[in-house]
Every structure is written in structure tokens, then in C-alpha cells.
């Protein structure tokens, strides 16, 4: 698998909302070299292991990677290229939850298989990402369809950070500027991301699903058929958990987030617990105040990630159901904060947060 990544990371704080344009090396017609300069405004958390930068003069140490000077003159021509056997992609992140975005508007089936996605997500032998996201044609009166493969190749129903990246990716593909919203068909139904003037994306995430059988979980439910503060035995230790589906399953537990919480050890035990027939994402949450929560996550199919949008939404729902917080909260994740609101009048959840381009690349399949 040969990967060519083309990176220009020069962003000023004032151009943050048009970061895609600022990042895009293909917009410069005369550019034959690639330079990297880090500005304080630039989040590079998602580059943590995918491409090892040694110094600002740009070096990629992995022998299977080669950096190519751009020959094209616009992002549209780059993203439109359709050589067989070559996949062009854009790497994005939402608070360090990172994704390989693929233009799949020409077909209703993903252009690569789950197995290929798993290879591309590998942080040592591939591009490195928490998942691969495909922008497919819309269906059921929607503008687009979003599908995603986790880094283990499994296909989840939805991805909150991913759909913000998806909206920014579509805006770039369609050359749209300013405020735009899209109707996106997902495995969780209709999701509506809206790009705001400040470049952040606010997403109508729809309604949470609380009915135990639909989460799905085998844990005992209350009269409303919801699993709230149920006891879950994990290897002899009892945890109190609340289960919420945002299209994808979440198990939320409250306590103190200690540094010694060993996600890599405890996470898989929740994920594969017999009470979760479709596996589960798990959120470990600390309440700082009724409007401020801190959360760490173990994701189904992706492991410990720096952020999880659906997880932050499920966390606020669980906090409200357990009487721990109000309906409008800031949720702090390792990669940064998300603003979440569970609106009483329509039962919908709204998530607001950033989505940023990391780099453009091509990979031979
Ligand atoms: N990181 C995502 C969730 C991605 C899907 C998840 N791993 C699953 O299998 O359900 C988010 O931001 O929501």
C-alpha cells in the first residue's frame, strides 16, 4: 500500500473557518514544494502517530510514504481525479477523533472494503485514523448519505465528530462557502449538520433512543423501558450505568475520572459484555457542575479515542436522566470541548464543535 500525502499546514488564527482553503496545497498553481509551519492556532493532535514530523522543514520517516509536490491547480481537480487503483482522500479530525474522508458521490457502495479501511486506519502501516467516512449520494429525500467504517472494519450507524467533518468535506467538494446545512442519511436516520459562520458545525443529532431492547442492552429496565442507573457487573466489580442509543449504543457511567483509569484494560470488557449484543461504546464521566461534564471514552471498534460526539450526546442524556446535570452542557473530552443541548420541546439533541482538515493524500489500493 503506497501512500502519498501532501501537506501544507500554514493557518492563521483569522482564517480558521476557511481552514480547508488555507490548508489546500492544490490551490496554489505555482507551488512545487511543500512547507510546514505550525501556528499556535493549529490543532495537530490527530497527527500524533500517523505522520511523524521531525522538524518544520517537513520530513516523513515512514519508508512507504512519499511526499509529492502538487501538480494540480485546485482542490476540485484533486478530489475529482479518478485513476483506477488510486484512492484520493482528505484526512479530517473533530477534536482529535480522526477520519479518512472519501468522495463516494459517484456510487451507492463504498469505494473500499471494510478490510481495506482497517488497513488504512492502521497508525503504523497505514494512514492512521479512527475510521473511514464515505460521502455517498442521498436517499429518501436527503442530500447525501454518510457511511463509516470503524478502524476495526466494523460499520457503526452514526458518528458525531465524523458528521461534522463530513459537512466540511462536502462544502469543500461542492465549493460552498459560509453557512450551509445538509440533510444527511445515516444508519441512525436523518442527521442535519449546519456549518456556522465561525467554521464550527452544529448538528441536529435527532432523538436519543432509550428503550432497552433498541439500545440494545439486556440490562434490567425501568417502567419506561429505559436502563437508568442499572448495576452492571464487570469482572466482579459493580458499575452503575445508564444506556442510551444515538443510533449507536452507549453505556454511560459516572464517577471520578482518575488518571489511573485504565481504558485499554476496562474498555474492552464493557465493549464485549454479554449485556450488549451489538457491543457498546462506553463513557466514563465526571460531573464538574450541572453544566460541565468531563468524559473519557472507549469506542466500539476503535478503542480509546480523543473524542466521541455521539458519546458526548449520550452522556448529557444520561446525566439528565440521572438528575446530575441540566440539558445544556459543555462536555470536555481529551481532544477538547463539545457543546451539547438536549432540547425539551422537540426531544432533539444538538451538538456543536469544530472539524478541521489535517491533510490531503492518495493511496494505491
Ligand atoms: N467517534 C464517533 C463514534 C464512531 C462510531 C463508534 N465507534 C461505534 O461503533 O458506535 C462519534 O464521534 O460519535
UniProtKB/TrEMBL annotation:
Biological pathway: Amino-acid biosynthesis; L-lysine biosynthesis via DAP pathway; DL-2,6-diaminopimelate from LL-2,6-diaminopimelate: step 1/1
Top enzyme category: isomerase
Transmembrane segments: none
Record carries keyword Isomerase: yes
Subcellular location(s) of the protein: Plastid, Chloroplast
Xref: SUPFAM superfamilies: Diaminopimelate epimerase-like
Pfam family, one: DAP_epimerase
Keywords carried by this UniProt record: Amino-acid biosynthesis, Isomerase, Lysine biosynthesis
InterPro entries for this protein: DAP_epimerase_AS (IPR018510), DAP_epimerase_DapF (IPR001653)
A GO molecular-function descriptor: diaminopimelate epimerase activity
EC number: 5.1.1.7
Primary localization: plastid
Catalytic activity: (2S,6S)-2,6-diaminopimelate = meso-2,6-diaminopimelate
GO cellular component: chloroplast; cytosol
Top-level taxon of the source organism: Eukaryota
GO biological process, one term: lysine biosynthetic process via diaminopimelate
Protein family membership: Belongs to the diaminopimelate epimerase family.
Protein name: diaminopimelate epimerase
Lineage: Eukaryota, Viridiplantae, Streptophyta, Embryophyta, Tracheophyta
Amino acid at each position: 500500500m503506497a501512500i502519498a500525502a501532501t501537506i501544507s499546514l500554514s493557518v492563521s488564527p483569522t482564517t480558521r473557518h476557511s481552514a480547508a482553503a488555507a490548508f489546500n496545497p492544490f490551490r496554489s498553481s505555482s507551488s512545487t514544494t511543500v512547507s510546514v509551519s505550525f501556528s499556535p492556532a493549529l490543532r495537530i493532535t490527530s497527527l500524533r502517530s500517523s505522520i511523524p514530523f521531525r522538524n518544520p522543514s517537513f520530513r516523513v520517516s515512514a519508508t512507504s510514504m512519499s511526499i509529492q509536490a502538487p501538480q494540480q491547480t485546485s482542490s476540485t481537480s484533486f478530489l475529482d481525479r479518478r485513476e483506477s487503483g488510486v484512492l484520493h482522500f482528505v484526512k479530517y479530525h473533530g477534536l482529535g477523533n480522526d477520519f479518512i474522508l472519501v468522495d463516494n458521490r459517484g456510487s451507492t457502495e463504498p469505494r473500499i472494503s471494510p478490510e481495506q479501511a482497517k488497513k488504512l486506519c492502521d497508525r503504523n502501516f497505514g494512514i492512521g485514523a479512527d475510521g473511514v467516512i464515505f460521502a455517498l449520494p442521498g436517499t429518501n429525500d436527503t442530500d447525501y448519505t454518510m457511511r463509516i467504517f470503524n478502524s476495526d472494519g466494523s460499520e457503526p450507524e452514526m458518528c458525531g465528530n465524523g458528521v461534522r467533518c463530513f459537512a466540511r468535506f462536502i462544502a469543500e467538494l461542492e465549493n460552498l462557502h459560509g453557512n450551509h446545512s445538509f440533510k444527511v442519511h445515516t444508519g441512525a436516520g436523518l442527521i442535519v449538520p449546519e456549518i456556522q459562520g465561525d467554521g464550527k458545525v452544529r448538528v441536529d443529532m435527532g432523538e436519543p433512543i432509550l428503550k432497552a431492547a433498541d439500545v440494545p442492552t439486556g440490562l434490567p429496565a425501568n417502567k419506561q423501558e429505559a436502563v437508568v442507573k442499572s448495576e452492571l457487573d464487570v469482572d466482579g466489580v459493580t458499575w452503575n450505568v445508564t444506556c442510551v442509543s444515538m443510533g449507536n449504543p452507549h453505556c454511560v457511567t459516572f464517577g471520578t475520572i482518575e488518571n489511573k483509569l485504565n481504558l485499554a484494560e476496562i474498555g474492552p470488557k464493557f465493549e464485549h459484555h454479554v449485556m450488549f449484543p451489538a457491543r457498546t461504546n462506553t463513557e466514563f464521566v465526571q460531573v464538574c457542575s450541572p453544566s460541565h461534564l468531563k468524559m473519557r471514552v472507549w469506542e466500539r471498534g476503535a478503542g480509546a479515542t480523543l473524542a466521541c460526539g455521539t458519546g458526548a450526546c449520550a452522556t448529557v442524556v444520561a446525566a439528565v436522566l440521572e438528575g446530575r446535570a441540566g440539558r445544556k452542557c459543555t462536555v470536555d473530552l481529551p481532544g477538547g470541548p463539545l457543546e451539547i443541548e438536549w432540547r425539551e420541546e422537540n426531544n432533539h439533541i444538538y451538538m456543536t464543535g469544530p472539524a478541521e482538515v489535517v491533510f490531503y493524500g492518495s493511496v494505491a489500493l
